[in-house]
Amino acid sequence: MKRILVLFRNDLRTIDHPALNQAGRDGEVLPLYIANQPRQQVHASDWFLHYQLIDLKQSLSELNLPLCMAKGDTISVLRQLIDQFKIEAIYLNQMHIEADGASDQAISGLAKKLAIQIKFFEANTLVSLHAILTHQNQHYKVFTPFWKRLIQADIIKPSSAPASYHAIDMAESSSLKIEQLNLLKDSIWTTKFAHYWEPGEKHAHRLLEQFISHALPHYNEKDYPSLAMTSMLSPYLAVGAISPRVIWNRIVEQMLLTEDQRDRIIIEKQGWAFLRQLAWRDFAYQQLAVYPDAKTKPLKRNFNQFPWLQDRQLFDAWQKGETGYPIVDAGMRELWETGWINNRVRMVVASFLVKHLRIDWRWGQAWFEETLIDHDQANNVLGWQWVTGSGFDAAPYFRVFNPIRQAEKFDPDGTYIKQWLLELTDLPTAYVHHPIKTPEMILKQANLELGKTYPTPIVEHEQARKQALAAYDIIKEGK
Ligand SMILES: Cc1cc2nc3c(=O)[nH]c(=O)nc-3n(C[C@H](O)[C@H](O)[C@H](O)COP(=O)(O)OP(=O)(O)OC[C@H]3O[C@@H](n4cnc5c(N)ncnc54)[C@H](O)[C@@H]3O)c2cc1C
């Protein structure tokens, strides 16, 4: 029987894992996960990864497969294990983008050098990334035509598992213990995540079902942070605990299964709105695969000249949620506490950083990378370039969100703000979006001392907007 090593990366699951499934049909299997060199600092997403790996080990053991865990440089580890276990083939799902560890090409290069077989599978996106092309065979730069093309394409059906697996014998000592991967190294901060999250493949599927029965019919309210009408599947998608194709197929199935005509109209409308959001993820992967330097370079090159401010004090106030703009502060404090904020609030806080404070989007991107439990390189890069206006399909820089209006619109009674800013609990709703306008007597009644118990705004909106536009004027195309 062929001896096959299955390399797990951002696909930490057993359901719809084409590389694992095919390896099971083709020979004896050794599942492997390699943690790359330890980081200086633990990231929020490392907490999720740690528990997802424990879950993967359990799910694999139910299939009679051991999980080998290793750490270090991917190529060196692979080289050593291929030799130790007399591996004849590597099967893996394509990653397309360069994340931590080695790229698809580097692993391919190693297999070629060692003269062993390598097989790549499509698993992490809805469609093969290079299948969605314009009539001129180019990749799309704008989302809407990409989406129109995607819905005409065949969404890959989830792969089926073999009846049973044959494992390559592995002594327990050949694998590191999960603690040795050091994913929770000295982290006091991430311990609180257990209150909010339950990693695991089965839980991801349960969450999808809960979303379908409770929130999907109200997905049009997804922008209201206090209503929580989104799936919250992002951390599971980021580590691959659930596959996007499983989600797509389940939503389409739900549309077909809904018998009552009125319910069906609602599910179809909201279902498509949700799938469109899910397709943004494919779009982000395609953009990063085609423009790998987008992590550090603006896609619109004129943004290279933008006069960003290097103001550590303003950045610090933003990170801590002390800007004096309640919706921004609530978002940044929720992020620190739970590792997650909804898409609307991400847009509001990110826009505040790059427009009101004129701080480089790469600083914000790095902070999100550290603090988001669902950190996903493609989505994060695309999200920041979208908000900045430097992406190909992006909010124009000159359209500056007014954080007070955004809060009035998406958190009208201040429920969300008061959930995260306890110091504003007793402030009447009429003032919760702009405490600075509160009359002295009401401030007293609400036990609020501006500048002491809650900050005064660190910049004035109208002035900040004008300064942002003046800065943008310098880099406008054609200037
Ligand atoms: C500045 C900024 C940074 C972001 N960084 C990340 C990140 O690191 N990781 C991440 O997963 N998402 C990121 N997003 C996208 C989006 O905010 C999250 O995917 C979404 O809020 C996750 O919540 P959910 O799973 O409940 O979403 P749902 O609305 O339930 O959507 C389901 C899934 O669709 C995908 N999706 C939804 N909206 C988007 C979008 N705008 N762009 C790309 N994919 C989307 C996600 O995979 C999401 O889990 C970022 C957005 C912005 C504006």
- The count of strands amounts to 6
**Spatial separation of the terminal alpha carbons:** 65 Å
| Helix/strand/pairing category | alpha/beta
Average the pLDDT over all residues and give the rounded result: 95
* Oligomerization category of the chains in this entry: single chain
CATH superfamily of the largest domain: DNA Cyclobutane Dipyrimidine Photolyase, subunit A, domain 3
Q: What is the CATH architecture assignment of the largest domain?
A: Orthogonal Bundle
- The arrangement of helices and strands along the chain is EHEHEHEHEHEHHHHHHHHHHHHHH
Could you list the spans in which at least 5 consecutive residues all have pLDDT below 50? none
Helical amount among residues, as a percent range?
Answer: 40-55%
Topology-level CATH name of the largest domain: DNA Cyclobutane Dipyrimidine Photolyase, subunit A, domain 3
Rg result: 24 Å
User: What's the structural domain tally?
Assistant: 3
Brief description of this entry?
This protein has three domains: 1-124, HUPs (Rossmann fold), CATH 3.40.50.620; 127-155 and 200-290, Serine Threonine Protein Phosphatase 5, Tetratricopeptide repeat, CATH 1.25.40.80; 301-474, Orthogonal Bundle (DNA Cyclobutane Dipyrimidine Photolyase, subunit A, domain 3), CATH 1.10.579. Helices cover 46% and strands 7% of the residues.
